[in-house]
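User: Just a sanity check before I run the rest of the batch. Below are the structure tokens for the first item. I only need the designed sequence back.
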């Protein structure tokens, strides 16, 4: 049974207001001549054409099904930003959540099952300190089996072992974000940031995700003092997780010559652990390997900054537009017949004509027999 015009109009209005869009803005983005048309649609006085429905879905960052179901829209999960974008924050959050919902749908359609449940740690923000956070990082590093160079495996472990939905977005400005919804834990990354910055963000957001139950975001984000303290703890956790004291001490000792380190040594150690040189320097200071005066001297030295920048290019990695796991899940669902070809192209943000080329970019072919069964012993 088709949804009534008034119900559809009401849902469009709620999703528009969620993004803080005015009727004239929505009309302009769709290509309608006046805001009066949006007003008529939201009141149920005018039917929505098929192409308008598709455009509304795109602009409001929701699925067509979200617009057409009878139930009231679910309250969007809270998204925690490390540094929120100045422009289109609500749209980016909505698009992130939409992608996470699609991710979850593809897991079901493809029959994918995670081998391990995502951990939650019981902590008390009022009594949590840096020493406790350091111990928590050690515990999590062991539990996730991240080894001596955690940055090398962190993203892959979160995504492929624990099923964390990871999405990259070309945001221009703004940094990482995290959330937990009916789709599970998820992390949003700014694809414009340097790889070592993204590594630190992964570890930072991991702290929020594993303490989500103990430190509910809704009760913290509105209290600036508590939020600032929580962010400092998240940074300390990230530093400790990515730069294990024992392995870092060994690397530090191996680079020492006459009890001194060159700038190149510091940069090499930072690249080895997949973190920024600044993160490494502050970690060494906290471990009492270098003094506060030395830290200030290094970071103020233009030569150090110049050498640091000159070594970045070989280590730069640009993530794909759509996560590889997301594409694999969509392709498996298509091969199993639970996802149509048109839905597959929609999920991958491409046209039916370009679908084969898009798949080939990820090493997949829609002409091969991936459904061949293998008998197990």
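Assistant: Here's the designed sequence for the first item:
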């Amino acid at each position: 049974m088709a949804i009534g015009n008034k119900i559809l109009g009401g849902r469009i209005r709620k999703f528009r207001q969620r993004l803080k869009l005015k009727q004239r803005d929505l009309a302009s983005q769709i290509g309608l001549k006046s805001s009066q048309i949006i007003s008529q649609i939201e009141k149920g006085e005018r039917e929505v054409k098929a192409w308008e429905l598709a455009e509304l879905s795109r602009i409001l960052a929701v699925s067509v099904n979200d617009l057409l179901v009878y139930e009231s829209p679910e309250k969007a999960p809270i998204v925690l930003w490390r540094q929120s974008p100045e422009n289109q924050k609500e749209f980016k959050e909505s698009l992130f959540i939409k992608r996470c919902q699609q991710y979850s749908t593809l897991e079901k359609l493809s029959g994918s099952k995670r081998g391990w449940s995502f951990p939650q740690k019981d902590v008390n923000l009022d009594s949590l300190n840096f020493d406790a956070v350091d111990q928590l990082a050690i515990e999590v590093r062991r539990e996730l089996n991240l080894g001596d160079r955690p940055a090398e495996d962190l993203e892959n472990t979160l995504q492929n072992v624990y099923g964390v939905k990871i999405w990259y977005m070309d945001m221009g400005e703004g940094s990482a974000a995290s959330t937990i919804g009916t789709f599970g834990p998820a992390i949003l990354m700014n694809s414009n940031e340097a790889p070592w910055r993204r590594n630190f963000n992964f570890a930072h957001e991991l702290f929020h995700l594993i303490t989500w139950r103990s430190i509910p975001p809704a009760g913290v984000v509105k209290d600036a003092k508590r939020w600032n303290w929580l962010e400092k703890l998240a940074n300390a956790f990230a530093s400790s997780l990515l730069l294990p004291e024992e392995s870092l001490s060994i690397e530090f000792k191996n680079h020492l010559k006459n009890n001194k380190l060159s700038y190149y040594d510091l940069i090499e150690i930072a690249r080895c652990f997949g973190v920024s040189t600044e993160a490494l320097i502050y970690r060494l200071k906290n471990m009492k390997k270098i003094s506060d005066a030395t830290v200030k001297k290094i970071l103020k030295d233009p030569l150090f900054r110049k050498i640091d920048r000159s070594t970045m290019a070989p280590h730069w990695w640009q993530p794909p537009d759509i996560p590889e796991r997301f594409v694999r899940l969509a392709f498996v669902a298509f091969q199993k017949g639970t996802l149509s070809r048109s839905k597959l192209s929609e999920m991958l943000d491409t046209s039916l004509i370009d679908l084969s080329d898009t798949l080939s970019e990820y090493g997949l072919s829609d002409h091969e027999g991936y459904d061949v069964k293998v008998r197990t012993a």
